[in-house]
Amino acid sequence: MRLACYNVEWFDRLFDDDGTLMSDTRWSGRRDVTRAQQVSALGHVFNAIDADAIMVIEAPDDHDKRSGTKALENFAKAFDLRACRALLGFTNTTQQEITLLYDPEKLSARHDPIGEAGDAAPRFDTSFEIDLDIDNRADSVSFSKPPLELAIETAAGTQLRMIGAHLKSKAPHGAHGRDEIMRFSIANRRKQLAQAVWLRARIDAHLAAGESLILMGDLNDGPGLDEYENLFGRSSVEIILGEAGCPCLYDPHAARALERKIGAFPTTARFFLGHENRYLQALLDYIMISDNLRSKAMAWRIWHPFDDPDCWSDVALRDALLAASDHFPVTLDIDI
Predict the structure, then answer these.
(1) From 3.60.10.10, 3.30.230.10, 3.20.20.70, 3.40.50.300, which CATH number describes the 2-334 domain?
(2) How far apart are CA 307 and CA 45, in angstroms?
(3) Structural domain spans, the chain
(4) Which of 11, 13, 90, 253 has a beta carbon 3.0–4.6 Å from 146's, enabling a disulfide?
(5) Ordered DSSP codes for 169-190
(6) Is there a contact between 151 and 159 (Cβ–Cβ < 8 Å)?
(7) Which whole-number Å values give the CA distances from 38 to 20, 225, 318, 321, in the listed order?
(8) SS3 (DSSP) at 150
(9) How confident is the model at residue 189 (pLDDT cuts 50, 70, 90)?
């Protein structure tokens, strides 16, 4: 079975309110990419990865007048994808949902949120109390994009838990001047780390129960990604993976990046920095698995057009990956 995680930049802007694809010459949410170009590129990429289930990050918006699941299922139908059924959990107000697109012949999935008020990890659509600034007063933290919690059963009968996550960005959006940028950045990192602690508490509960777990998503963080990491000691990725000596999650790309402070490591996203006239690459997207699944995992792959030789040599795929999103898909082939 192949699982994928894919952050699609402004997927929502490719659909009208009826969930119909808008493949025209108007600009998409992508820089210098029309809606027709992005739609075509995404169709090519989704067919190329040919995954049994894709955790779509920044999936189309869902509210009382707009169906994100209908939009994704229309997209799947337009490109004849095996993964043709969409499932989301708690909706949000950011126009960027977390949705699983999957092949119903290969697995069944249901939204299965857990947690009660007062638990170490309350339900993800509520709030989490934590002292963010070490002032002996609890701060209330919430998710702008509550993680998607799923109960999965594969066609082979394997039962597991799956979580799709999109943690808060650390970028100081709206800040002006050095001091304000610093304040915003530190505050955003505090909130992101709190979300990671909350998510890790849920992971601990699953692992303590002996359940198989797969976590997929854009964690908006990685080792060495910004200058404020040393202020807090750990990245969100390290918190979610787990401390040495406790049940941990595993992702080989995260492990490789954590092993080195200097030198090359994998990247999953590529952003244009207009003020510097250059691109920044970062490791943001992960597929983490519990220890009891590691013997079944066969291969992780980042579909990076400049790092993966097969993506590079396939010109049509290379161009599609660059036009489709500022993130690249991550896949895991696993025997479940």
Answers:
(1) 3.60.10.10
(2) 16
(3) 2-334
(4) 90
(5) P---TT--SHHHHHHHHHHHHH
(6) yes
(7) 15, 28, 13, 10
(8) strand
(9) confident
